[in-house]
Every structure is written in C-alpha cells, then in structure tokens.
Amino acid sequence: MNASPRIFVTQREIYITDTDEKRDSLDQHWITFLLKCNLLPIVLPSEKSLVKQYIQLFPPDGILLTGGGDLCLFGNGNREREEVEDYLLDWAREYSIPVIGVCRGMQLLQTRDGMNLERVSNQITATQKIIVEGTFQTVNSYHVWGTKETSDNYYVWAKSEEGIVKGILHREKPIYGIMWHPERINPYRVEDQKLFECIFTKRMDHNRTTPTECLR
Ligand SMILES: NC(=O)CC[C@H](N)C(=O)O
C-alpha cells in the first residue's frame, strides 16, 4: 500500500477566559475529512521553531492553512500561528509544494500578495451558491472580510453570485484558496474531496492543476 500524502495542518487559537489559557485548536471534522480524502493529517503547534524541525524530519507533501480567527493585521490575530503559516508559505513556494488556504487561510494568501481585504456583506450563511467556472455549486460561508478582485498573481476560479471572490489559484505555483469550509458541511461534498485529493495526491509531481481538471 502506498503511504498517504502527509499534510501539515495549522490550527486556530482559542482563548479560554476562565483559566487564562491560549489553546491551539482544530475542528475534529478536519481529521475525518482529510482521512476521507486519503490524506495523512499532521497537526502543527503554533510554534515556528518546532515546525522548522518537523520540516527537516518529515517534510510534508502538502500544507493546509485552516480557517477561523482573524489575521494579525485586523488587530486580534494570533502572532505565533501567523509566523508558522508565513514560514510554511515561504517554504512551500520555494519547493512548489501544494497549499490550500481555507477562509482565513485564503485571506492570508491574498494579503501576503498585497491585496486589501474589505468588509463584505451576506457572507455568513449556511448555504450559498457559488459559480465555479460557469456552473453553480452550493457551499457554506463564514467570513466578514473579502475581495471582489484578486492580485495579478492569482487566477479567480470561483465567485459568489454578488461577485465576491471564493476560489483562487496561483498562476505559477500549486497554491489554492477557498472561502468556504469543507469540514463544516455534512455530508462532506464530493467536489471538496476530489479537490483536496487531486491537489495533494495526484499532483505529487508538484505541478499546478486547475480546479476544473480536479473535478473531472
Ligand atoms: N471563517 C474564517 O476563517 C474567518 C475569517 C475571518 N475571521 C473573517 O471573518 O473574514
């Protein structure tokens, strides 16, 4: 049996007021979703020095920047998490390792590339129609920051009906962003499973593929 691709998974921070604790935290659905995609999740602490060592010891085949929480630029983000994610993104770009940024993860991809996020309306909803290269799909959505355009380095492959950018792909690197939460949809969408499996498994040769190719 071939080993499943190793996917480094970043975590959000949850602050517990009663005990004054900062906890790294991950929705358990991420684990079941990634296993369903035949991927091996490796959950990362928000500590860059450790993540550097992990990369040396067992370099990943893909990187997942999970969502939840805000970016530091909005004033209440988690600095340690963002340091880890910035480091992973620099490393992934250098070695052309596939990356998927989910919601806040995609926002990080965009802001690192010079995009200004703006407040967007109607993007907190259990179901939302998005247009993926000409066809409608139904997803969920949970964000207040977004854009109607993206930088020239990225290609937009999904938008909401009102024109909010929902899916991006880097023009040269296998770096993808989505503005919905595959792990929070029950049952998991087949399209999301295909996308994750294709990006992280079929592209182990580290080429870039389009989402449409993945969904075929
Ligand atoms: N769902 C998320 O990842 C949250 C993103 C960010 N907090 C926003 O509201 O835009």
Blueprint (SSEs and pairs):
Elements: E1 6-9, E2 12-16, E3 21-25, H1 28-36, E4 40-43, H2 48-57, E5 62-65, H3 79-95, E6 99-102, H4 104-112, E7 118-119, E8 124-132, E9 135-142, E10 145-146, E11 154-160, E12 165-170, E13 175-178, H5 190-202, H6 211-215
Parallel strand pairs: 1-4, 1-5, 5-6, 6-13
Antiparallel strand pairs: 2-3, 7-10, 8-9, 8-11, 11-12, 12-13
Number of helices: 6
Q: How many β-strand runs?
A: 13
Low-confidence stretches: none
> How would you characterize the largest beta sheet?
9 strands, mixed
Q: Kindly state the percentage of residues in helix.
A: 25-40%
Shape: globular
Structural class: alpha/beta
User: Mean of the pLDDT scores?
Assistant: 94
The CA-CA distance between the termini, in Å, is: 25 Å
The ligands found in this model are: glutamine
Write the element-wise H/E pattern from the N-terminal end onward: EEEHEHEHEHEEEEEEEHH
Task: State which percent range the strand residues make up.
Answer: 25-35%
Strand order of the largest sheet: 4-1-5-6-13-12-11-8-9
Gyration radius, to the nearest Å?
A: 16 Å
Which features would summarize this protein structure in a list?
GATASE; binds glutamine; globular; ligase; Class_I_gatase-like; nine-stranded mixed beta sheet; two-stranded antiparallel ribbon; 216 residues; 13 strands; single chain; purine biosynthesis; 6 helices; alpha/beta
Give an overview in words.
- With 216 residues, the chain is an alpha/beta fold.
- The protein is 29% helix and 30% strand.
- It contains six helices and 13 strands.
- The protein has helices at residues 28-36, 48-57, 79-95, 104-112, 190-202, 211-215, and strands at residues 6-9, 12-16, 21-25, 40-43, 62-65, 99-102, 118-119, 124-132, 135-142, 145-146, 154-160, 165-170, 175-178.
- Strands 4-1-5-6-13-12-11-8-9 form a nine-stranded mixed β-sheet, sandwiched between helices. Strands 2-3 form a two-stranded antiparallel sheet.
- The model has no long low-confidence stretch (mean pLDDT 94).
- Bound molecules: glutamine.
- The site of glutamine has 10 residues, from loops.
- Glutamine binds at residues 67-70, 103-104, 142-145.
